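Q: I'm writing up a methods section and want to include an example of the input and output format. Could you take the sequence below and give the corresponding predicted C-alpha cells, formatted cleanly so I can copy it straight into the document?
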Amino acid sequence: MQNPRQMTPQSQRPRPPREKKGLPSGVWALLGVVIGFLLPVVACGGLFFLAVVGASATGGATPQTVHPPIAAHVRGPLSGPAVAIIPVEGPIVEGRSRGLEPSTVAAADDIIAMIRAAKHDKRVKAVVLEVNSPGGGIVPSDRIYQALKDMNKPVVVLMRDLAASGGYYISMAGDYLYANPYTLTGSIGVISTFPNASELLKKIGLQMTVVKSGKVKDFGSPYREMTPEEKAYWQHVIDQAYDHFVKIVAENRHLPVGKVRELADGRVYTGTDAKDLGLVDALGYEDDAIAKAADLGHIADVPRVIRYEPYTSPLQALLGSTAWPGLSLERAFPWNQALMPSLQYRWLP
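A: Here is the clean output for your methods example:
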C-alpha cells in the first residue's frame, strides 16, 4: 500500500517560499544615512537662500552701515605716491549697489565714496577715472561730476568700450581724456520714455478709473495717451536738462556752444572721430592714462597704482559677483524702471 503523501498530486504539494526581490538591507541602511545627512544640509541651504534673497533686496546692510571702499594694490611700489583708479562700470544709478552683483551698475554713492577716499588720502596724487557706461540718471550723473570737480586733484579719464551720455557727462570733470580708437562716446542728449498700454487694456477689456486733483496729476500715465500739451510741457523739461549738458561740454572742452549743439544730436562717435571733433584729448590705453596722471600729479618715480572698488560683504565675496545673477531685483523686474518716468543722460541703442 502506497504512502498517502506519495499519492498527493504534484500541483497540490506545498511550494517553497519565494525569495523577496529588492535592495539588500545594507543598501537601505546606507540610503538612510545619506538622507539623514542631507536633510540638515538642505535645510541650511534653504535658510542660506533666504538670506541671499534678503541681501539682494536690502543690500546686505542696515542703513546705518557705511563701509569705506577697498583700495587694492595693482602695480608699482608698495608704498609712496599713488595713482588711484576709480571704475565707473554699467548704468549710472542712485544709491549704492545692491544684492550680489555690485558691478552690474555704477551706483552714485559707491563712486562718490571712492572719489572722497582718493581726495582725503594724501598718498594719492592723481586719479584715473575708468569709464565704461552708457550713462543713466541725470541726478546721479551730476552728483558724480560735482564730486570729481570738488576733489582738487588731477583727474585723467580713460574711456573703455562705452562712455556715452551720462558716461560722457561725468568725463567732463577730467583734466585729460583718453579714448580707445573704437570707444563709443558722445551721445550728448536727454531721453525719457513713457509706456502706453491703453490699446492693450482695451483688448483685454480692462478700464482704469483715475481720480485726481489736477488735470496733469496723472501725467505720463501708461493707461492713456499723452496729450499734445503734456508732450510740450515735458519737452520743456527735457530742453532744460539738454541745455545744461551742452553748457557743461562747452565749458570743459573749450568749444563754442553752437559747435557743441551741432554735435549733440544724441549720436555716438568712435574715439577716433571724438578726437578729431575735440570731444576727447587723445587716443590711448591704460598705461597712457596712468603715465599722464602721474605726470599731472608730479610723481617723479614709478607711481604706485591702486584700484578702488566698492565694499564687498562676506556674502558677496563668498558667492562672487556673478554666482547668483538671477537674484538682482532689477534683473528680475526690469519693467519696474520703465514704469517710472525720469530724465536720463543715457544712450539707448
